[in-house]
Design a protein that fits this description.
With 435 residues, the protein is of the alpha/beta class. The chain has 14 helices and 18 strands. It has two domains: 11-195, Carbamate kinase (3-Layer(aba) Sandwich); 282-429, VC0802-like, CATH 3.30.2130.10. An eight-stranded mixed beta sheet has the order 3-6-2-1-9-11-12-10, with helices on both faces. The structure holds adenosine-5'-diphosphate, aspartic acid and magnesium ion.
């Protein structure tokens, strides 16, 4: 890892890292890996084993099991419109609990340890409550504790603004905390430990015979994560790519080789990759809603007006398709995350007024299935195979979107799993294309 570049970027005192002799390992354990006291003891044993190998170990942890879901449910029993600041106060507590328990379990095994909140760990963020972005990691305190021989346990998913407001990074954000911390302290290795032993060609909970990837490029993993493969938070992959920090995804349940997320150059060298595989994986996303503005006047500037209004509300658009029809009218359809639908509904009237004459139709019963890989657009036959496979499974395609790394179809939500299974059979089970 290019330590100087990273430390300059993160603002950490260069001398502190330089004077640190041991290799630094950052490990992140997800909710399922710390769901019970026994699992927490398992994490402690694994961490201590790495410490005994001579490494300085930083552990980033998620909240236990489904704690975050339970806290959200609890808030909904109080209000449907919680203040985002208060949601952060509530949700960050989940990670604090597991952090303290993991630190205690490590101490029980005879190794000194210390737990840190995001704030104590120097995780600085902007002030977008519930979806904060990381501005930097002031890693000096972490390095000091590592230097004194301790294992440092840090609460993932959270940070602090310049005016000391607690923030969280969005669902699944502990992965991003871990990679950012690895960059911030100039770690030598970064591992994400979870309930699956690597990244597969599709979600192993849906597909019976998924193939494990020994490696996956940053770009392909980013696309898979954005399109719904929740094994990694997409922003963690963005940071890994930006700083070229290889990330190992593996299971916390046993010792098994995982998947390395890295540059294609590294993969070519280490995994002797001879030829690229056209389709690397299949992702799907269910919690989405489709908004169609129908009969929009076909005039310059109309789309600009619509999407700048949406942009002002901080609503991420997953996909946009414009369909032309005769008579100077268009339909504009776009997808948003299900959690953003209430916000979109609030401005729907304004949008319709903006594009005079249009009407808006909302469909919550949609999902996306996507093929991801360097070859999906390069090889025209792949699109035809995707559409034929979905048709043969009796799945109607509502919208299609492509980029140089993905082919996405919007389909009915209740057929999402069937779509993933059919596509997996077509692209991965007929001939072995995994690695
Ligand atoms: P953690 O709690 O450790 O952060 P997550 O539940 O966020 O774990 O992510 C792991 C889950 O991601 C797996 O249980 C699996 O169902 C899901 N997943 C989705 N797509 C994939 C994929 N392509 N490869 C591996 N796991 C995947
Ligand atoms: N606990 C948070 C969540 O469930 C963050 C994480 O697990 O990464 O979304
Ligand atoms: Mg996760």
């Amino acid at each position: 890892m290019k330590t100087e570049k990273i430390l300059a970027a993160s603002g950490t005192n260069l001398l502190t890292r330089r004077s640190f002799a041991k290799p630094i390992l950052v490990q992140k354990y997800g909710g399922s890996s710390v769901a019970t006291a026994d699992l927490i003891k398992n994490v402690a044993r694994r961490v201590v084993a790495r410490h005994r190998e001579g490494k300085a170990v930083v552990v980033v942890v998620s909240a236990m099991g489904k704690t975050t879901d339970s806290l959200i449910k609890l808030s909904k029993e109080i209000t449907q419109h919680p203040q985002r600041r208060e949601m952060d106060m509530l949700l960050h507590a989940g990670e604090i609990i597991s952090t303290a328990l993991v630190a205690m379990a490590i101490a029980e095994l005879g190794i000194p340890s210390v737990s840190f909140t995001g704030q104590q760990a120097g995780m600085r963020t902007d002030s977008s409550h519930t979806e904060a972005r990381i501005l930097g990691v002031d890693g000096v305190r972490i390095l000091e504790e590592l230097g004194s021989g301790k294992i440092v346990v840090i609460a993932g998913f959270q940070g602090i603004t310049a005016d000391l407001q607690i923030t969280t990074l969005g669902r699944g954000g502990s992965d991003t905390s871990a990679v950012a911390i690895a960059v911030g302290i100039g770690a030598d290795e970064c591992e994400i430990l979870t309930d699956v032993d690597g990244v597969y060609t599709a979600d192993p909970r849906i597909v019976e015979k998924p193939l494990k990837m020994s490696w996956c490029s940053y770009d392909e993993m980013l696309e898979l994560a954005i399109l719904g493969a929740k094994v990694l938070h997409s922003r963690s992959v963005e940071i890994a790519r930006r700083f070229d920090v290889p990330v190992l995804v593996a299971t916390s349940y046993r010792d098994a080789p995982g998947t390395v997320i890295c540059s294609p150059e590294k993969a070519r060298k280490e995994f002797r990759v001879m030829e690229e595989v056209s389709v690397r994986g299949i992702a799907h996303q269910k919690n989405v809603a489709k908004i169609s503005l129908v009969d929009v006047p076909d005039q310059p500037g109309v789309a600009a007006k619509v999407f700048s209004t949406i942009g002002k509300q901080d609503i991420n658009i997953h996909l946009i398709v414009q369909a032309e029809h005769r008579g100077g009218k268009n339909d504009i359809s776009f997808l948003v995350g299900g959690d953003k639908l209430p916000l979109v509904r609030q401005i729907l009237g304004d949008l319709v007024q903006l594009v005079s004459g249009a009407r808006a139709v909302v469909d919550e019963n949609v999902a996306t299935v996507s093929l991801v890989g360097e070859g999906v657009q390069r090889e025209p036959g792949i699109a035809a195979r995707m559409f034929t496979t979905l048709a043969n499974a009796g799945i109607n395609i509502d919208l299609i979107s492509t980029s140089n790394l993905m082919l996405t179809c919007v389909i009915p939500e209740d057929r999402a799993e069937d779509g993933v299974r059919a596509l997996h059979q077509e692209f991965f089970e007929k001939s072995s294309t995994g690695d």
